[in-house]
């Protein structure tokens, strides 16, 4: 009986070792990195060791994934991913939803949007999807009118009506918090806002609506989506522990979307 028990323990240990996996997951700074660190804690007892790799921009994480330098990433919404795959030929696939981070408008000069004057300087992201997202927010606020048919990726060239004569500064998304001293308003993604000490709920003077289509996702290379570690990664992210962390850490500024 002792020998049988010992053999069973050895087999169980071997099975655990067999299924153990080490992966690298690319994230952007701020909430994506912080949440993935919590995911890593949940995943470790499940046999998945996650090395969280931070990237300072929105382009490199998909390049690194396509090149095999990392095994997954978690930093982007679907419209951005679709645009990247179209423009750069990446063969990537979504395996799970993560969070929604409403884009906000910030200002060191204004207390509310009513104070925005004619000819104001407006800083927005310079990548097509997040720049378009910023313009759609301005349209929702009645500040510009965009040409019909531009979908989720309008550019400043698609502005049909700009009654205040707003002047647009198109900059790398990570640099936008630094423009607050110069621009009248800056439209900033939540991860870069939080990383710069801005609280989206208390510091923004306008926010996207809650029904935004910009749900963030976990992405892997096509062909990897059915590997066992992918299922474990998604299960760990969607755990009650991670959900509780998000709710407590961000107080509604980051919304769980699964």
UniProtKB/TrEMBL annotation:
<dbReference type="Pfam" id="PF03180">
    <property type="entry name" value="Lipoprotein_9"/>
</dbReference>
<keyword id="KW-0564">Palmitate</keyword>
<keyword id="KW-0449">Lipoprotein</keyword>
<comment type="similarity">
    <text>Belongs to the NlpA lipoprotein family.</text>
</comment>
<feature type="signal peptide">
    <location>
        <begin position="1"/>
        <end position="20"/>
    </location>
</feature>
<dbReference type="GO" id="GO:0016020">
    <property type="term" value="C:membrane"/>
</dbReference>
<protein>
    <submittedName>
        <fullName>MetQ/NlpA family ABC transporter substrate-binding protein</fullName>
    </submittedName>
</protein>
<dbReference type="InterPro" id="IPR004872">
    <property type="entry name" value="Lipoprotein_NlpA"/>
</dbReference>
<keyword id="KW-0472">Membrane</keyword>
<keyword id="KW-0732">Signal</keyword>
């Amino acid at each position: 009986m002792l020998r049988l028990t010992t053999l069973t323990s050895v087999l169980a240990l071997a099975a655990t070792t067999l299924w153990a996996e080490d992966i690298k997951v690319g994230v952007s700074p701020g909430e994506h990195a912080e949440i993935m660190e919590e995911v890593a804690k949940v995943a470790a007892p499940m046999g998945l060791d996650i090395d969280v790799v931070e990237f300072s921009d929105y382009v490199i994480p998909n390049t690194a994934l396509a090149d095999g330098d990392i095994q997954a990433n978690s930093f982007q919404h679907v419209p951005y991913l679709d645009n990247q795959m179209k423009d750069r030929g990446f063969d990537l696939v979504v395996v799970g939803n993560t969070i929604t981070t409403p884009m906000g408008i910030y200002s060191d000069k204004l207390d509310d949007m009513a104070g925005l004057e004619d000819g104001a300087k407006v800083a927005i992201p310079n990548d097509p999807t997040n720049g378009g997202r910023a313009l759609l927010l301005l349209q929702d606020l009645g500040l510009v009118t965009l040409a019909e048919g531009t979908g989720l990726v309008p550019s400043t060239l698609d502005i049909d009506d700009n009654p205040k004569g707003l002047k647009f500064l198109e900059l790398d998304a990570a640099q936008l918090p630094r423009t607050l001293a110069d621009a009248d308003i800056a439209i900033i993604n939540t991860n870069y806002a939080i990383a710069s000490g801005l609280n989206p709920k208390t510091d923004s003077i306008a926010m996207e609506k809650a029904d935004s289509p910009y749900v963030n996702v976990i992405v892997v290379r096509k062909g990897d989506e059915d590997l066992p570690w992918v299922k474990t990664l998604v299960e760990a992210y969607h755990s009650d522990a991670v959900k509780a962390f998000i709710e407590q850490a961000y107080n509604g500024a980051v919304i769980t979307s699964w």
